[in-house]
Every structure is written in C-alpha cells, then in structure tokens.
Amino acid sequence: MKILHVVHAYPPSLGGSQALTARLSEQLVARYGDSVTVFTTVARNIDSFWGGSSALLPAGVEQINGVTVRRLGIFNRLNRLRWFASGVAYRLRLPYNDLLRTWEMGPFVPGLRQAIAQSGADVIFATAFPLLHMYTALAGAKAAGIPIVMLGALHLDDPWGYDRPMIYQAIRQANAYIAHTPYERDHLVEQKAIPASKIHLIGAGVELDPLVPADGRAWRRAQGWGDEPVVVMLGKQVARKRFDLLIAAMQTVWSQHPSARLLLAGGRTSYTAKIEQMISELPPAMQANVTLRSDFDEADKAAMLTASDLFVLPSGHESFGIAFIEAWACAKPVIGARRGALASLIEEGHDGLLFDYPNAASLALTILTLLADPDRRQQMGAAGRAKVLAQFTWEKVTAQVRAVYEEVARGQGDRMKG
Length: 418
Prior knowledge:
It is built from 18 helices and 14 strands. The chain is of the alpha/beta class.
C-alpha cells in the first residue's frame, strides 16, 4: 500500500503527534512492507509557526528508517496581525473566529496542498487538530480523490483550541476518524453528531523493547540519589502541561517527605524559562530536590521512568496521554486529572489515581497516598503493564490503523468502479 502521512512536525522534533506518526510510519514499513511518505514542515516545535526563535530543520527529502520524509518550508510572518485579529474575533464571538484562530496558529506551508494532491497515495493520514495543515491535507485529498483518515488528538477541555465548528466539519468530510479514547468518541457522536460508523477507537502505542532492560538503579546512582522516593513527570515543557501545579503540590509532599525527588523532563520550549524561575523561587532545600532535564536523549526515558516510584502528569488538557502508557510499560503507577480523556484512560484505584484538577492540594494528597503504600504502587504498576500488553503495543495499534486504511481505500475503489 502507498501511504502518505501528513503531520505538522517530525522527529527530531519532539511531541506526541510527531512520535506517533514516526512510529506508525516505521511500523508500516517494517511489518507490512508499505511505501510510506511523510509530508511535514521544517519546524522543530510549533513556536516556529508564528516566528519563534528555534532553529529550523533543512527543507528537502530524506530517508529515516525506511520512511521517506519531505520537509517543506513555512510562512511565519504577519504574526502580530494574526494574533490581534484572532483574539478580537474570539472575544466578540464574531463570525469565522474559528478560522482566524486557525490562521493564527498555522502552519502555512506553501506547496503542501499541491504536493498532497499529486502524491499518488492510496490513502492519506493527517494529524492533528487544531492546526491549519489538517485542512490543507483534506483539501489536497479531496482534489485528488484520495481517501483520508484523520486523527484529531482533540483536547476537548480547551475551548480556545478546539471549540471550532470547522474542526467538526472537517471530520465529517473525512473518510474515517481515529479517536484515542471513549471520551473523545462519545463526544463526537453525542455532541457533534459525527456518525459512529466513521469513528474508530484506537489508542497510541509504545515500543516495549527499549523500556524493558532499563536500569533505574544505575540511573539513580548516576544522579547521586539513594533510596529516597522519586516522582517523575515527562512532558513537553509548555504551560498546558501544568508544571506549576505539580511544583505547588510537591511543596506539601516535601513537608512529609523532605528527601523526595522531583524529576521534570521534556522538550525545551520558550516556557522552559518560566519553569526554571518557579524552581529558583523554591526554598533552597526544595530546589536541591528538583531535577530539570530538557531535550533528553530518548534512550534515557526508560531509565528515568524505571528509576521513579510513580509518574504524574498534572495537565488537564490531553487527548490521550502517551506518557501514561510509557509509565505503565515500565510498571509504574500513574496520577492524572479527573477530567476528560484522562479519566477515561486511567482505571482509578487499579492502575493509577485521579486528582481534582486544578487543585494542588488534591494532587499532593494523591502523591502522598501512593508514596505511603509501596505494595499498592507495585500492584498498580503491574496492572498498568498488563493493560499496555493487551491494548497499546505498536504491533496491535499498527494493525488496527492499517485495517482502517484498507477499509477506506477499498471503499474508495468500490465507489470509483461504481
């Protein structure tokens, strides 16, 4: 099968959509012998879409693990005008304010629509909303009569980003849609009148092999740590991940466990300076217990997770939470928000705990609850790993996604014959 994947950025760019698209692409090549091409941009992170200072990757075509990756340039000017127009239109609820918000975010990718239309693909996959390239992918696919599968990664608790009629119009026009959680699927069917037959419930996957042999004790020793409890958070260093909430909660945790370590790791962004400032404002004894890792080597991820006692993601705006799956793969209990998609992913009391978002005291209490009960942590971690093996290996996820591709490609062929 000739497959085209369209995504706003691609490794070495860090992020959930980037990692998912890369893994899915490589799995399709390795397991099925498919010809997979990725159309993406030169951006290292989304700040580049509105004039961020991060260096861009070179435009052009390269082969990465059997996948053909084509990076296209971006137009990222008129940023103040885009920001002003979208903000005013949103506050006043003017017509087409969702379009202006989409233009503000970008990415504007000259030549992308034409390249998609000329790709000759059997099927197109595009991720993720609310970015502009999703509509470009849809337009290119429709122009060429190529079926398109969308994975929106909808953060439904974020009205600025996702309360946009044009998102749901695009989903209706797609041949198929992949929802990550029952929460997302039910919202689309019950609130947005998307046909249930169009939606396929498929989670993201993890690669188990790099996670199994990790030596957490060696990683602890390298940091100069002993047996003190370690709380870890992995996530891109952006405001919506709520690093501030976890740092606030840990101050209560430290009142009972003064030696507890907090490990914060993720891709560096313009928000990283704010995280560094929050850490610097802690009392010296607490500062000493915080480790911030930016742009870490992926090979260190498993060691960091294995070195921890529990995993926390305090964000209230997630479409899925791949970091939870990675923590479960390392047999770690998790803590997430009792909100939206996360609450439908975590089975509370079985493989993790939920806290009342955005209540720092509630988050602190859940952390303290798990730190006080090693046996319960072990049981939850084992339950999480069992869930990963049953539902979230890349072998299982890739097979499900490819079945959707085959279905829409076959349906398109049948319509053309008719």
